[in-house]
Every structure is written in structure tokens, then in C-alpha cells.
Amino acid sequence: MQRSAAAISESLKNVPPFPPVAVKLLSLLSNPAVDANEVADLIGGDATFTARLLQRVNSAQFAFPSDITNVRRAVALLGLDTTRQVMLAHATAVYAQGGLKTETMRRCWQHTVATAVLAEEIAAGCNAFTSVAFTAGIMHDIGRLGLLVAYPEEYEEVIRNAAERCLDVLEFEEEQFGAHHAEAGRMLGELWGLPSDMALIAGRHHDPCEGVELSLLRIVHVACRLADVLGYDVVKPLLPSSASDVIAQLPPRARARLTGSPEELCERIEERIREFGSEPADAPPEETLALLASAAAAQDLEPVTDVVGAGAESDLVESTIEQTQLRRHRALILWIVAGLAAIGGAAWWAWR
Q1: Which range has the worst mean pLDDT, 19-23, 304-308, 326-330?
Q2: What is the mean pLDDT of residues 263-270?
Q3: Which fold is adopted by the domain 5-277?
Q4: How many degrees, rounded to 5, is the angle at CA 213 between CA 263 and CA 260?
Q5: Which residue, of 31, 72, 80, 272, has the greatest Cβ tally within 10 A?
Q6: pTM of the predicted protein model
């Protein structure tokens, strides 16, 4: 059933908002001079984000010699770019979980991760937009996520029919819904108050590239198309392309710096899909509580001079009574929130 763009906009207003912590992080991290402690404190105010960050920093991927139980230390060890990637991937995966129950919808998520990885690779090769390319790739298809949350069965049918009939997915979405997923992304970007560059990416990542300027939008556009070419498509393109054809949309100086083969790129994508695909739909309450208990016990910040150097120690180690009391207060809040979440989760499972 075709819907008007106005009806789509109204439906998207009822879609649960993107996690507020993630939106605040995007805004905070858009400032190159952001204080890492401020980022850590924002994450530390949310129990689920705290637990996920501590899970990741203590994973085998990083293999630090001792357990990290403090959010500020975790951010210092991971760095702002990796922290942003972990938090945004977690937020997007959690947001999309309601629709990731079928193979069709899982392909949407894999395409999102592939685009983010490729955007990061292109940015690194071009030495431009390196701090935001991955985030832009993760956020580029929020419109698709919004449609699958608002219309889970109808949207899956649209994707499946477009795939089976090799239709142009944007045209088919507009025919069925009155707006395609890029337009839905623009609407959600405005509704959620995303930074303007992220809202632009969400709304225009399918626009043809014009001129020769290497912009973040061009990087994500190329990454999105390259993901399709490498097999991480949601719907097969009408006109098959090669990786070299897609990369040709980048300026010559950018193309010359891209050295990874398609096989190498696919390996990196698969690694990230496995990494982010492990996002638990419902993290075991006991695991989350254990992590938060460790964070609560770490009432005084751990020394980090072996990681960030003595010059940064004064920014990370605080010893005043007022600050210690503040940390204890936050720890208590985390305990309460986590306890309520565990009780609620157990009750939900029992009822189900």
C-alpha cells in the first residue's frame, strides 16, 4: 500500500529515538578539542553503554594485561576514534535488533557494517575524514533501520520483492511507501537532532557524485556502492559494476592511495561483522551486573601513565573528596539502573 511522505514522516515520529547517549556522543565528538574525560563521563552515565565498553576493552581483541574496570581508563586506552566506533556500532545494533530476525534484515545490517569499514579504508587511504568516516558509514542507512522498525513486515517484503525482481530499490521503496530509505534517513536525522553532516549522509548517500572534491559524502557514496560490488548488497544492482569502476568515482589522487585488494577488504569486513555481530540481543543480567560491579568498585581512577604518558596523568587522575563522592554517586546510580534492568528482563522472560 502506497503511503504519502507526510504519513511516513508521522510514522517515523513514533519510531523509538536513537539512543540519546549515542546522539550526544556524536555531537560531543564532532569537536576536535573534546575532553576524553567528558566523553567517558557521558558513557558512564548509561549502564548498558558502560557495560558494552568494558566488555569490548576487556576482550581478546585488545588483550590488555589486566582487567579494565574504569570507564575513563577504558576511553584512554581505546582512544576517542575506537570508542566512538564501539559505541555507535552498539547503539545501531541494539536499535535494529527488533528487525534483525530474518536473513533479509541481517543483510541490511551487514551492508551497514561493510559500508562503514570501506568508508574507513577509503578515508585512511586518502588521509581525509579519518576520524568520522566509520561513523558516517554506520549512520548512512538509519532510514532503512527506521523503516524496518516502523513497518517490519511490509519493509521486508519490499526488500525481498525488489531483490527477486531486480528492481531499483529506491524507486520501489518510493512506490510502496511514498518515500525511499534515504529520504526516511533525512527525516530521522532531523527528528533525532543528529549533527548536520550525519543527517546529510543519511539523506543523500545515493546521490550521484559531482565535481572532483573529496567530500565525506563522496567517500560514503563510494563505500556504499563498493559494499554492493563486494557482495554485501541488500538488493543486487541493476547494472553490475566492478570494484575498479566504483573506485573510479574518487579523485585520481585518492584512487592512487587505495592499495587493498577486494579479497583483503572482504576479510576486514568479515572481521568487523563477526565483531559487531556478537552484539547480544539481551546481555545476560549477571554478566552486565558483574561488569558494573567492577566499575562501581573502582572508586578511584586507575593509573594510566603506562598508556597515555605522564603528561596526561593529571587529566585522568583526580583525588579530591568531591570528585570521589561524585564517582561513588554515579556508581550507585549504575547499580540501581542495572538492578532494575535485570529484574525487568527476568520478569519479561518469565512472562514470555
Answers
A1: 304-308
A2: 89
A3: Hypothetical protein af1432 (1.10.3210)
A4: 15
A5: 72
A6: 0.67
